[in-house]
Write a structure and sequence with these properties.
- The chain has 152 residues and is mostly helical.
- The protein folds into two domains: 7-60, no CATH class; 77-151, no CATH class.
- The chain contains six helices and four strands, in the order E-H-H-E-E-E-H-H-H-H.
- It has helices at residues 18-22, 33-36, 80-102, 104-119, 125-136, 140-151, and strands at 7-8, 40-46, 49-54, 59-60.
- A two-stranded antiparallel ribbon has the order 1-4. The protein has a two-stranded antiparallel ribbon with strand order 2-3.
- Strand 2 and strand 3 form a beta hairpin.
- The longest helix is centred in the middle third of the chain and has 23 residues, at 80-102.
- The protein starts with 6 loop residues before the first strand and ends with a helix.
């Protein structure tokens, strides 16, 4: 499966100069990209070599296209709101699992612990993660005692 270029421009591969086919000149205007330092982007492959165009001649080839990635785009381009929603959902599912596996006292300790780490900032993150692992292993009383000791 080939990778589609991110930018597109129409050009006739048969009329390209050697420099354009080598990727050192713009396929639209012939400008020497190495000398001018103009910003350029890959726009295709001709006989196994990637060819480029000045950004002033290109358009975004991804506009209006969907993707195979979750949410339609790679994680790096997902909005902060989408990432926060995913994190909240994972937290909710984790708390439900702890309660199902170890009872309401365990979920109560887990919620207190998360609040102490994230909201109150009375428990260091690394310590909080270690205590959450204890809760998930069923060591609820031990984690609760340590939480009380650290957070007060």
């Amino acid at each position: 499966m080939g990778i589609e270029p991110t930018y597109s421009i129409s050009f006739d591969a048969g009329t390209l100069t050697d420099e354009q086919r080598d990727g050192t000149a713009c396929v639209a205007c012939g400008t020497d990209l190495a000398v001018t330092g103009l910003p350029s982007v890959p726009v295709g492959v001709v006989k196994g070599a990637m060819v480029f165009a000045c950004t002033r001649h290109t358009q975004d080839a991804t506009a209006g296209k969907s993707s195979d990635w979750p949410g339609g785009e790679p994680r790096g381009v997902r909005t902060l709101e989408e990432i926060a929603d995913d994190a909240q959902w994972a937290l909710f599912e984790g708390i439900k699992r702890v309660e199902r596996d170890h009872g309401p006292k365990a979920s109560n300790v887990a919620l207190r612990l998360i609040r102490a780490v994230v909201v109150d900032e009375t428990v260091p993150e690394v310590e909080g993660i270690a205590l959450l692992r204890e809760v998930s292993r069923g060591e609820i009383d031990r984690a609760a005692a340590r939480l009380d000791e650290i957070a007060g």
